[in-house]
Amino acid sequence: MYNFGIAIHGGAGTILKSKMTPEKERAYKDALSIALEAGYARLSSNGTALQAVEDAIEQLENSPLFNAGKGAVFNAVGQHEMDASIMDGKSLHAGAIAAVRNLKNPIKLAHKVLLHSDHVLLIGDGARQFASAFDIEFESDQYFHDELRYQQWQKIKGSENFQLDHAREDKKYLGTVGAVALDQHGNLAAGTSTGGMTNKKFGRVGDSPIIGAGNYANNNTCAISCTGSGEFLMRASTAYDISCRMEYKGLSLEDAAREAVMDRLTQIGGDGGIIGIDRQGNITMPFNCEGMYRASKNQQQTVIKIYKE
C-alpha cells in the first residue's frame, strides 16, 4: 500500500497573525480541518485521489471564508464568476471550467469535463450548457452574497483597479482553494478552484483553471495546486515547472518546489505558494509571502497551519 495522503490550501498572501482575531483563526482552521478530513476519509476507504481532491475542495467551496464557491468575490458588475480545474496523474486527463456563474461547486463541473468530455477547458455559457446534462447544482446570486466581499468591492467599484486576494492593502484576506492527493493505488491528482479577483473585468481568467499553471498532476512526479499571483503563475507555468524540475533535473519534490516558488516565481515578481505531494507520499507546502492557509494529512501526521514558521 502506498503512503497515501492529502494536502489542501485556502490561498496564500498577506496573512498576518497581528491582524487575525483568535475567533477568526479558529474558524479558518476548523474549515481547513473539515475539508482535510473529508478528503482523507475518501482515501482511507480506498477511494481515488480524484475523488478525495473533489471531496476536499467541495468542502472549501461551501465555506464563505475562502474565495471559491460560496465565498467567491464580486467582479466589476457585481457578479460571481468562478474557475476550477482537476487533473488525473495516472492518465494525464484533465477537466477545467472558467467564467461560470452561479455554480455551487465549480470543482464538480470540472470533474465532469474530465470524465465526460474530449475537451479540457470549457467556459461561460458553453460550460453551463454542458452542465445541464449532469446533476450539477446552481444557486441564486443571493447564495453567494457575503457582506465582507461586498464591501471589498464597494471600495473599488467603478474604478480601473482590481483587488488580488493576497494584496497587502486588503488585510481581510480571502483565498483560492486547492487540494492534492495520493491514493492507496499510487495515483496522484490535483485540483484548484477560485472566484478570481475583486472587480475583475473583461472576462479575466487566472491560473486556477489552466493546466500546468495553477494545477498539474503526473504519477511519475507529483501533484501540484498553486495559489497567489495568477498572471505570474501562468507566465512561469509553476505547477508544470515543479514536475519538470523533478523529471529532468532529478530533484526531490521539496527542492523542485523551493526552486520554482522561492527562486523563479520571485524573480519575475510573483508571490504565492503551492501544495504538492509526490508518488512516495512526501508533502511540501512552500510559499514566498506572509502566510498560506494550508493543511495536510497522511498516516503519520496531521498539519494545519496559517502563518510562516
- Summarize the main sheet: 8 strands, mixed
How many H/I helical runs? 8
Low-confidence segments, given as residue ranges, are 170-174
Q: Give the integer mean of the pLDDT values.
A: 90
What fold name goes in the CATH topology slot? Glutamine Phosphoribosylpyrophosphate, subunit 1, domain 1
Residues in helices, as a percent range: 25-40%
How large is the share of residues in beta strands? Answer: 15-25%
Total beta strand runs: 12
Q: Shape from CA axes?
A: globular
Please state the CA-atom Rg, rounded to the nearest Å.
17 Å
Description:
- The protein is an alpha+beta fold and 309 residues long.
- The protein has one domain: (Glycosyl)asparaginase (Glutamine Phosphoribosylpyrophosphate, subunit 1, domain 1), CATH 3.60.20.30.
- It has 8 helices and 12 strands.
- The chain has an 8-stranded mixed β-sheet.
- Helix 1 runs antiparallel to helix 2, helix 2 packs antiparallel against helix 3 and helix 7 crosses helix 8.
- The two termini are 32 Å apart.
- About 2% of the residues have low confidence.
